[in-house]
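Example record

One chain of 274 residues, shown exactly as stored in the release files.
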Amino acid sequence: MNNVQLLNEKCQAHKRRALEMCLHAGAGHVTSAFSCAEILTALYYDLMRIDHGNPAWEDRDRFVMSKNHGSVMLYPVLADLGWITQEEAGTFLDDGSRLGMHSKLGTPGIEFSGGSLGIGFGVACGMAYAAKEDGSDRTVYALLGDGECYEGAVWESAIFAAHNKLSNLVVFLDRNGLCITDYTEKMLQLDPFVDKWRAFGWHVSQTNGHDISAIIQTTRQCREENNEEKPVCIICDTIKGHGIDFMENKLFVHGVTPRGEWAKKALIQVGGDV
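Predicted structure tokens for this chain:
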């Protein structure tokens, strides 16, 4: 079994665990989490420089989940790394739990208390700027949603990053094409998305956001080719709800957790026990 197969199996296990957590809680952003599972797997098991035994290692790379409503997919990763226990992962949305709908500082491995969209990206830019000023070689990664890019703060941060030549900043853009109530191109047209980010001074590439190998290769290639000190943006083509066919690319399932027979169907499709 090669490394890609192992990563794919790990990713599927995280999807299954995240769904189980949402079903236990009776709530959660299942579709938003499932569109970014492969991106998180590529980050934590290949691209990021981290110490599996010490989530607070000073020289670690940083990750900011600006698309923070998908945090339920991050918690199985933290549990797998041993940064939180599997038992704690099962407390998602319980009273007193550290594991909320949005991530909270104080949870091992969490760099940012999430909430309003667009804010995390600015935090990531600040982290990258601080690292550059300190002479550190750490990289800052951020995950944004495409609907999040309706926020003006995103483009203010994009200008800041390009102006300050933050080549130590890598943004993954989850391009699933859906907002809460409609498709992005019907709400406010984002395309040509690649051209927009390039116009803001970024080194941009596009890849299949559900192909772990492609995400890793595209990111490495971008960083190798980036000789102009530009921040990097990887636009990842994804499907909201990927892996649960009755929730894939569907309207009005944002923030919805399946129930009853639908929950059983979802579990079967991700390989869980019914």
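Notes: The CA atoms of residues 26 and 246 lie 18 Å apart.
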